[in-house]
Design goal:
Elements (H helix, E strand, L loop, with lengths): L5 E7 L24 H12 L5 E7 L4 H15 L3 E7 L6 E4 L1 E3 L25 E3 L4 H9 L7 E4 L6 H13 L3 E6 L8 H31 L1
Parallel strand pairs: 1-2, 1-3, 3-8, 4-7
Antiparallel strand pairs: 4-8, 5-6
Helix pairs in contact: 1-5, 2-4, 3-5
Organism: Callipepla squamata (Scaled quail)
Pfam families: Peptidase_C15
Subunit structure: Monomer.
């Protein structure tokens, strides 16, 4: 019997902060970065593709709190994906960084519409922090063992702006079946091709880790 196809949704975005977060939406260069590294990296990922049986859907997300609150639930409803991976660029990063968790409170920066939630939080009454169900430490070890010429590290703070806001919103919507990857600006030190290959390897390993975890859960239920 043929296995059902699975969906992986990748959204590309970022945040403009004076400390160096950059912006990713598709309306041109923005902030201190003349090139949108995360969008270009994801375009490289699209060229490479993922394993057979996995459909890859790519979206750009505006740097707007209210749009994020509408769009993220709509994407989960539309695709019912196995995994959603959000990708942003950080001007402070020198490695490809796997974010472990999203945070609910502390959002004070204005978005591209000069808007900020009055509550300064993603979900009123939601938990302060939500962890991804993906074992990011395991993904980091697996990808590092592949011998790619890209360093991969772990973070527990996605920045308390639109990147973190998007991640928390997605984690809340999906009960943790989301991930966020920060990439450095192009050429600092990696090329678009290097970042694209790194994203491909990271997402493949995320799927492997998720499948292994689900197999263990199913096995426990059977017994």
């Amino acid at each position: 019997m043929e296995k059902p196809r699975r969906a992986v949704v990748v959204t590309v975005r970022a945040a403009l902060l004076t400390v160096g977060f950059s912006s990713v939406p598709g309306f041109g260069p923005f902030g201190e970065h003349a090139v949108n590294a995360s969008w270009i990296a994801v375009q490289e990922l699209e060229k490479l593709g993922l394993r057979d049986g996995v459909d890859l859907h790519v979206y750009e997300v505006p740097v707007e709190y209210q749009t994020v609150q509408r769009l993220i639930p709509a994407l989960w409803k539309k695709h019912s994906p196995q995994l959603v991976v959000h990708v942003g660029v950080s001007g402070m990063a020198t490695t490809v960084t796997l974010e472990k968790c999203g945070h609910n409170v502390g959002y004070k920066g204005l978005d591209n519409c000069r808007f900020c939630p009055g509550s300064q939080c993603c979900v009123e009454g939601g938990p302060e922090c939500i962890d991804s169900i993906i074992d990011m430490d395991a993904v980091c070890r697996r990808v590092s063992a592949l011998g790619l010429d890209v360093a991969v590290t772990i973070s527990k703070d996605a920045g308390r702006y639109l990147c973190d806001f998007t991640y928390y919103t997605s984690l809340y919507q999906s009960c943790g079946r989301s991930a966020f990857v920060h990439v450095p600006p192009l050429g600092k030190p990696y090329s678009a091709e290097q970042l694209g290959r790194a994203l491909q390897a990271i997402i493949e390993e995320m799927l492997n880790v998720m499948e292994h975890s689900e197999d263990k859960i199913n096995c426990q239920h059977e017994h």
